[in-house]
Amino acid sequence: MLKGKTLKMDKPPLRKYYDKLRFVFLISLTFCFSLLLLDYYMAVSDRGITFLLFHMNDANHAQIPKPSFFIFNETADSPGKIKYTNQNNVSTGASNLPSCIVENHSEITVPAAQGEVHERDISPPHLNRDNVGVVANLSSRNLDSCSGQYIYVHDLASRFNEDLLKGCHSLMRWFDMCPYVSNLGLGPKVIEKSKETVLLKENWYATNQFSLEVIFHNIMKHYKCLTKDSSLASAIYVPYYAGLDVGQYLWGGFNVSTRDASPKELVKWLAQQPEWKRMWGRDHFIVGGRIGWDFRRVTDMDDDWGTKLMLLPEARNMSILLIEAVDSKENEFPIPYPTYFHPSKDREIFQWQKKMRNVKRPYLFSFAGAPRPGSNSSTSIRNEIIKQCQSSRSCKLLNCHDSLHHNYCNDPVHVTKVFQSSVFCIQPPGDSFTRRSTFDSILAGCIPVFFHPESAYDQYLWHFPKNGSSYSVYIPETDVTQKRVIINNTLSKVPKSEVLAMQKEIIRLIPRIIYRYPSSRLETVEDAFDVAVKGIIGRIEAIKRNITTVNDSSS
Ligand SMILES: *[C@@H]1O[C@H](CO)[C@@H](O)[C@H](O)[C@H]1NC(C)=O
Ligand SMILES: *[C@@H]1O[C@H](CO)[C@@H](O)[C@H](O)[C@H]1NC(C)=O
Ligand SMILES: *[C@@H]1O[C@H](CO)[C@@H](O)[C@H](O)[C@H]1NC(C)=O
Ligand SMILES: *[C@@H]1O[C@H](CO)[C@@H](O)[C@H](O)[C@H]1NC(C)=O
Ligand SMILES: *[C@@H]1O[C@H](CO)[C@@H](O)[C@H](O)[C@H]1NC(C)=O
Ligand SMILES: *[C@@H]1O[C@H](CO)[C@@H](O)[C@H](O)[C@H]1NC(C)=O
Ligand SMILES: *[C@@H]1O[C@H](CO)[C@@H](O)[C@H](O)[C@H]1NC(C)=O
Ligand SMILES: *[C@@H]1O[C@H](CO)[C@@H](O)[C@H](O)[C@H]1NC(C)=O
Ligand SMILES: *[C@@H]1O[C@H](CO)[C@@H](O)[C@H](O)[C@H]1NC(C)=O
Ligand SMILES: *[C@@H]1O[C@H](CO)[C@@H](O)[C@H](O)[C@H]1NC(C)=O
Ligand SMILES: *[C@@H]1O[C@H](CO)[C@@H](O)[C@H](O)[C@H]1NC(C)=O
Which ranges does the record mark as transmembrane (predicted)? Predict the structure, then answer.
């Protein structure tokens, strides 16, 4: 367009005048476009990283551009939206990241990015057809609230997910999982008897504690920033139902080759995909609805526990989100167990929080659980707790061992009723350190009492406040087993003001520990899924920076 128009000297004066006008007009247009472009780069610079990362030389991570040069005003964002900036601040959740992945930002150097930016600053884009195309897309991109939040979901063969659900009768040796995989993994809908008002009318389900991966996958299907273009993605989700898969083989004498068949097949496939090569799978993540030990079998002996999924070389490069991590494994990230409430609107959450704020709590504390059979009765914390609870009128015991009451422990109405009638909920370790009950109690506004740091404080760093005393009571396990502490006395001595402050904090946490109804969108509230996604994207950003930094310092 520009090239075809050259000034000719033999034009009449008026024509010359028009040509001048047109020239001025074109210059100002060019100026406007360059302003727009600059603005565009500021707004999408996060996407810019992934773009360039992919399209540049994949192998050379020294050149990963990191446009932290720009400053994007966070406060201009709408509230409730996941905030994501380039100010070396991964996300507002960064402070909750485990210390091992919080970066030393002062070391990040970004020469490549700045060089490129300057070049673009100086020379305005030429007005050729390609650039007009880019400009045409600018306005929509400027408004892109997904920048830095895109997730690409691998399209796995159905044997890694959907087929497991079809075989739900044999997923668990001890019970039939089929009812629980219904309703997108939420389980059967809970309908209260007409007289009861323990729950809200809508969106309560008898959710199984091992359904996390199904629920997570179904929420992800409606995630607002999905992309089919993996080069735009900040993280790559692998929707493998790792926990349901291993769950089939944990009991019944299955040999290790049977147990490891799917995990091995999966990682082999993943490593062959083009998405893998970009970061050797280090931007990939899996969600497993079981504890870390179920995926970390060290030996190849048949009587050893679980699969070796997380010890396969490919999986070591990926991250896994699960309900309980093995202590200090840096690619395991614990996220809340699923509980019973799966709201589809902000309003329902606020309504529930209000209800929990105002409910009467006649019991000082309660315990819902069973002793561990075979455990040494004089050293078992659960036996001691049950004994103390039975002998204290201020404690409500929901004995899940007792066959008379057994069904109550799986009844969301009954469990929630006990917890919402109690100030404190006792959460001792059981088969492992964490319990689903912790999340049921928070949901009911009941302050959890922990006996081991691995039950919460060292686990849910993305979802729980850093300061454990702000939302829970800690009693060292041995104080109870060695009978140095009477739980009733310890809890009744907590000052009223502290109880109120903890209750307030617990109720504030409710949205962060629930998984919304999969096809719904919450407006201002971040649920457990949102917090987890923010966490994993932050973690992957940290890895990207690490790769850059390591390479910079070595070169
Ligand atoms: C960001 O924007 C808000 C509102 O638009 C303004 O009050 C604030 O001063 C800005 N902050 C910076 C650092 O520019
Ligand atoms: C990062 O965020 C934290 C809190 O969100 C803030 O205190 C800190 O100043 C921020 N750092 C930068 C470099 O913006
Ligand atoms: C960053 O690199 C260091 C040294 O190689 C390593 O110890 C650390 O775990 C890495 N952090 C992440 C987030 O990969
Ligand atoms: C971060 O790096 C700077 C410069 O290398 C160093 O002086 C500082 O102590 C480091 N901070 C932390 C928290 O490691
Ligand atoms: C601009 O948008 C059109 C369709 O909206 C698309 O075909 C084209 O690839 C986009 N251009 C760029 C550079 O993204
Ligand atoms: C493992 O068990 C499967 C099915 O029971 C069997 O086919 C296979 O031969 C066994 N493998 C080994 C190494 O024992
Ligand atoms: C895992 O990542 C490292 C780099 O961090 C890479 O050298 C290695 O090849 C990767 N492993 C696999 C199986 O892709
Ligand atoms: C139970 O623990 C006590 C105290 O540690 C010990 O004396 C006793 O021998 C143990 N009993 C069994 C059956 O292990
Ligand atoms: C943790 O919270 C408790 C109770 O709110 C408070 O007394 C204490 O000072 C806090 N500790 C820290 C390190 O902030
Ligand atoms: C619980 O402890 C308080 C304070 O020590 C005491 O007054 C009360 O009698 C105890 N209640 C029961 C049922 O043991
Ligand atoms: C860093 O980049 C150099 C090329 O600049 C490359 O040869 C080297 O393999 C890279 N190192 C790492 C650890 O990625």
Answer: 21-43
Q: Which atom of ligand 5 is nearest to the CA of 137?
A: 1
C-beta of residue 443 within 8 angstroms of C-beta of residue 417: no
DSSP E strands, 303-348: 319-324, 332-334
CA distance 177 to 244: 10
CATH 3.40.50.2000 fits 360-513, yes or no: yes
Q: Whose CA is nearest to atom 10 of ligand 1?
A: 73
469 CB near ligand 9 (under 6 Å): yes
Q: Count other Cβ atoms within 10 Å, centred on residue 81.
A: 15
Ligand 5 centroid, distance to 224 Cα (angstroms): 20
Protein residues with CB under 6 Å of any ligand 10 atom: 392-394, 488-489, 492
Pocket of ligand 11 (CB under 6 A): 60-62, 550-551, 555
Long-range CB contacts for residues 398-403, cutoff 8 Å, separation at least 24: 398/366, 398/367, 398/368, 398/369, 399/369, 399/370, 400/368, 400/369, 400/370, 401/370, 401/371, 401/373
Q: How far apart are CA 212 and CA 324, in angstroms?
A: 12
Q: What pLDDT is attached to residue 116?
A: 33
Spans of the chain below 50 pLDDT: 1-9, 11, 38-136, 555
CA separation for the pair 232, 518 (Å, rounded):
24
Q: What is the whole-number distance in angstroms between the Cα of residue 235 and the centre of ligand 4?
A: 28
CA 255 to CA 257: how far, in whole Å?
Answer: 6
Contact call for residues 43 and 72 (beta carbons, < 8 A): yes
Helix axis angle, 528-554 to 212-220, nearest 10°: 80
Torsion 57-60-61-67 (CA) sign: negative
Distance 498 CA to ligand 9 centre (A): 10
Query: Hey, what are 91's tokens?
Result: 């996300």
Q: Which of 61, 545, 551, 66 is nearest to 278 (CA)?
A: 61
The reported pLDDT for the residue numbered 330 is: 83
Please report which ligand is nearest the Cα atom of 498. 9
Q: Dihedrals φ, ψ of 422, to 5°?
A: -125, 150
Q: Is the CB of 407 under 6 A from ligand 6?
A: no
Q: What is the pLDDT of residue 334?
A: 97
**Ligand 8 centroid from CA 378, angstroms:** 7
pLDDT at 110: 29
> Which ligand approaches the C-alpha of residue 374 most closely?
8
Measured from the CB, is residue 376 less than 6 Å from ligand 1? no
Q: Which ligand is nearest to the CA of 76?
A: 1
Numbered ranges of CATH 3.40.50.2000 in the chain: 360-513
Q: Which atom of ligand 10 is nearest to the CA of 493?
A: 4
Residue tagged 């389900």 (tokens): 205
Closest CA to 44 of 100, 84, 76, 78: 84
